[in-house]
Structures
1.
Amino acid sequence: MNLTGFELAEVVLPLREPFVTAAGARRERRVLLLRADGEEGVQGWGECVAGEDPGYSYETTDTAWLILTEHVLPGLVGREVMDPREIHQALDPVRGHPMAKAAAEMALWDLQARELGVPLWELLGGSGEPVPAGVVVGLLPNVDALLRTVERHISSGYARVKLKVDRASEDVVRVRAVRERFPELPLMVDCGASYTLADLPRLRDLDALGLTMIEQPLGHEDLIDHAALQSELDTAVCLDESIRSEGDVRLALQIGACRVINVKPGRVGGLGAARAIHDLCRDRGVPVWCGGMLETGIGRAHNISLATLPGFTLPGDLSESRRYWERDIIDPEIVLERGRVGLPAGTGICVEPDVERISRLAVRSQAFGRSARFIGGS
Ligand code: MG
């Protein structure tokens, strides 16, 4: 791969509707987008999924900006040839900060695929077929609003519904209401690490509701209590926040902490690590699915490319662009068709960033190596 430089930009994209989770409400998304420049105008794009606040992990938009601008990107430019599978070696001196690293790693995967003239899904070993789309429903003010929202998503064609729940809300009452209204619906909950083992009676009530899985019920770094919990529940426990590496997956499976893994490339440091987790789980017969982090179309296209690998046997948090955005920053936008989302024919992530719109939304940008700073921002 011929890497000549990068441009990193922060854009502020308004959400179509506020998204409420155990960590709070979001009305807009501050997103870092990264363009990797190759020879002859070839470009690859990555996105950093870190949130505005440290409510999901310690990384935030601002820590990722610092790590990328001070430690990651200066160390990558000047390396004329780099395979994205080897980039983790170049990033070893930077401990932690997987979301910042993943933004660079994913941009290089896109760049390499475009230089080779192949789609990213092919480079990763996927099928490129449209994948079943799942939708996430945030915390809503009451049961009626929840039922109306779920009904709307089902009639749009989504293949499964995930409800965000929180031990401070009427979790069991609400989930039971959805289950009673839609008895056949593939339904799961995401607890966002908000429960403890002392909540076992409530978790047993959720266990009785025929859910496909219960995601991250306990502490965001915990494995051992999850193993105790999984042994008490019939429903599969799925881990999200607790899985930060392939090593975490090995440990979690070894001690029986879960039966399903939510794979987010940003959380584990990029597509290479995500694929290694996929391979490990596939060898062990453990299903995986692709989680979401309120990505723009750039991150979403990366996720869909990954989710076409054969071990992604469960619908992911892969919804269409308009689920979150009035208007996405890619062309064409991701659309839902017969319950699936797919990518058009093309190379790399198979969609083109709308650079004019990105430039209008940018609030800051910085260039590295021989790249020009053209996204703009103050
Ligand atoms: Mg989650």
2.
Amino acid sequence: MTVSGSPAGIVDNAPADLDWMEEVYKWFHAHPELSGAEEQTAIRIRKELERFPDWEITPNLGGYGITAVLRNGDGPTVLMRADFDGLPVAEATDVDYASKHSQLNAQGERVPTMHACGHDHHTTSLLGAMAVLDSVRDKWSGTVIALFQPAEEASIGAHGMVSDGLTKAVPHPDVCLAQHVVAGPAGTVYTAPGPVMTSSTTIEITLFGRGAHASMPHRSVDPVVLAAATVMKLQTVVSREVPPNKFAVITVASVEAGKANNVIPDSARIALSCRFYDEDLRKKCVEAIKRIVRAEAMAAGADRDPEFKFVGLLGATDNTDEVYDVIRPAFDEAFGEDSVEMEPWTASEDFPVIPKAFGSPYMLWTVGITPRTQWERAEASGRLDIDIPTNHNPGFLPDLSTLQTSTRAAAVGILSCLAHDWPERDKAKPTMGAVPPTDAEIDAVAVETAQVN
Ligand code: ZN
Ligand code: ZN
């Protein structure tokens, strides 16, 4: 017996003081920092961790990553992760804690920054859950690891913490948890077993032509026309090659070519973001992309083959059934009719890198943060897709009441996992994805797909 009582009952009767949370959240919200440059955010997290003198703190893991461990006797070890980076987005909300912050990006340009994905919310609610669990230590035993992760938006933060020794810095978790805020009626908690977030493959492609004077197109192989044709033809991968009942997204998110109005440039660059739940389908689509890009270059008469650079590979978030079976009943008790089934989300996460490094089961759930009146008005007029800001939108702003929801969800989720008898797993053997893909592995992906063509 490692937890005495129902998780929801323990959390709701906890004597923790959570009055500080709103001010801390507003500070994080007003001071968003870009992936890998979260210096002030990490300093503030460490300052807030001073509330918890019995937790062992390990700072500066993989950049600004931080872990906090509370060893509270025998029992399971549960890890919960919160990310804390912001995005290069100019906030367009009218609250008094809106971000007016800016920062230099990797290219040295000053860009406005915003917590447009709610990572400030994740971090504040994990601190809140720590306060709750700290205040009811006599009601549970085991070990809790709070993990604060940088650089999620760049898909490198979890890899960075793992490569910097995360598995040695903290006890081996029996289970890993994470949560993410999403557009949805405030206070709704969404859970599902199986794949809930997609894998992500980012490909940068350089198309080579032949430059010339803009008045002499016959002397060129025009890479702008080649890029335009390629972008259009790539639309047929999903519409003509993927079975209609299967999920796939191939977005050309960036097209760059030329600097002057009277020069046909000699190359163009396109960047693709591709999302899948199914790994076999991912491989098939990458092959199709390479086939189409090469064929279009040939059709244009290009002398030089296009170059493919695989700059990002993230696995799908595939919730472990056993963890879902433990947490869902606890959420049903805690949230009643607001505990609902999660629709798979087309975004991607680097969170699974952490459980994979330990070989642990895991689960990510989501929390709806849109003010209820705003949601209901949009729903009634059939304008949910238009009127409700999604993650990464300049108007994305969690209802303040949902800080309480995600704090409860984190505390209830952790407690329900502390109450479960987890089977022994092979702790020595981390699974694939434990370390970032090396250049050689990324090249191997390119070679592998090239060979199929
Ligand atoms: Zn995001
Ligand atoms: Zn996010």
